[in-house]
Design goal:
This protein has 351 residues and is an alpha/beta fold. It folds into 3 domains: 198 residues, Rossmann fold, CATH 3.40.50.300; 51 residues; 83 residues, Orthogonal Bundle (Arc Repressor Mutant, subunit A). It contains 15 helices and 10 strands. It has a 5-stranded parallel sheet with strand order 2-5-6-1-7. Strands 8-10-9 form a 3-stranded antiparallel sheet. Strands 3-4 form a two-stranded parallel sheet. The longest helix has 24 residues. The structure holds adenosine-5'-diphosphate and magnesium ion. Adenosine-5'-diphosphate binds next to helix 2 and helix 11.
Length: 351
């Protein structure tokens, strides 16, 4: 599928990359809003490969529970006697980004034995400096960073990592660092973290606004259906799924073999039944400390509004609904909203 729009966000990220590394950037937004797609578009099609070397770590599908798992994500071992920079130079022309930092087998074995992050970070810094010496700017991108949010090695790994990222950006100006997360509770933790104050900036990748969503429908119907949708159809689709790219794609794709009303009604029915089942479990006290009345009252706040002030909902209920992907929290704007229009419609229907 071709990539659509996001020109504003692309320009923002490219402008950051053109400057000297100074801050750690957190790319956040509701689930399936297009954060990963955006970063991949930039890496694959928008970055000048002669100038930049990108290390992209996607923690999404990787199970990380201990130090060794983390090391395996970071590194790609090799066993000849080349230097890491020679290895990079040999493979970079065929790849948009690297999925591991090249490391000689012996060095990797040493690092596995030592169980501290000190040597890990020292090794990475040396590789990054070698890249700089070659006249290229390194960029580190970690997708779904929250997956190591609770991991302990000696202390919390995430704090060691943040400290390291601060040294790479604010102190050494050596490497750009972008962290991506759909987990708004994790972003809230980052936002409240004193050690990161003034060292971090945030880029919101939200669902499309209405105007863009309608254009996305035009774009997709041309690509997938080879025809134009009527304005009424587009309005109808928007009223069900809003500007969430993945849902718009789903609808238009199904239009190849299904009727629009059936598609939309089925999607809403599915979402509604999932929400109702969750509410029944809450009512039956399946979740410790979560009160049914409070959840219902919180959801009622969305009857008239798509977005509300986060402090209208008590802490525990808020955390529960965010964790369950019913709501998206924007800790910077201090707002809560349903994870999608579809969820919003489901909430209104269940109540
Ligand atoms: N701008 C876009 N153009 C085309 N497809 C998109 C766009 N943004 C998102 N998508 C599609 O929507 C789906 C979800 O996007 P993704 O980037 O995985 O979301 P996130 O990382 O925010 O959870 C993907 O299949 C992706 O291809
Ligand atoms: Mg993603």
């Amino acid at each position: 599928m071709k990539f659509f729009n996001r020109e504003k966000e692309i320009k923002e990220v490219l402008s950051i990359i053109e400057g000297e590394p100074n801050l750690i950037y957190f790319i956040y937004g509701p689930i399936n809003s297009g954060k990963t797609a955006l970063i991949n578009e930039i890496i694959n099609n928008r970055l000048d490969k002669d100038k930049y070397i990108v290390f992209y770590f996607d923690l999404r599908e990787i199970f990380i529970s201990k130090y060794d798992d983390f090391i395996e994500v970071l590194f790609e071992e090799y066993d000849d006697d080349k230097s890491p920079i020679e290895v990079i130079k040999a493979i970079i022309n065929d790849l948009p980004s690297l999925y591991g930092i090249p490391i000689p087998k012996n060095t990797l074995n040493e690092i596995f034995k030592k169980k501290t992050t000190k040597n890990v970070f020292r090794y990475i810094t040396n590789v990054l400096m070698d890249i700089k010496k070659e006249g290229k700017q390194p960029i580190i991108i970690i997708d779904e960073l929250q997956k190591i949010g609770d991991m302990k090695i000696n202390g919390f790994l995430i704090y060691e990592l943040f400290n390291y990222f601060v040294s790479l950006t604010k102190h050494k100006h050596l490497c750009h660092v972008f962290c991506i997360s759909s987990d708004s509770l994790f972003i809230e933790r980052v936002y409240n973290e004193a050690m990161l104050e003034d060292r971090v900036d945030y880029i919101l990748v939200d669902d499309f606004d209405k105007e863009t969503a309608l254009k996305f429908m035009d774009f997709l119907s041309k690509e997938l259906l080879n025809k134009k949708l009527s304005d009424e159809d587009k309005e109808l689709i928007y009223s069900y799924v809003g500007g969430k790219p993945i849902l718009i794609i789903k609808v238009i794709n199904k239009l190849r073999y299904e009727n629009l009303n059936d598609i939309l009604n089925f999607m809403l029915k599915e979402e509604t039944s999932k929400l109702r089942k969750l509410l029944i479990r809450i009512k039956n006290n399946k979740f410790e400390g979560i009160e049914y009345e409070k959840v219902i009252n919180a959801l009622k706040l969305f009857k008239e509004n798509y977005e509300i002030n986060e402090y209208l909902v008590d802490e525990d209920t808020k955390e529960f609904l965010v964790k369950r992907n019913i709501l998206f929290l924007n800790p910077i704007e201090e707002t809560l909203k349903p994870q999608s229009y579809l969820m919003w419609n489901a909430i209104k229907r269940v109540l």
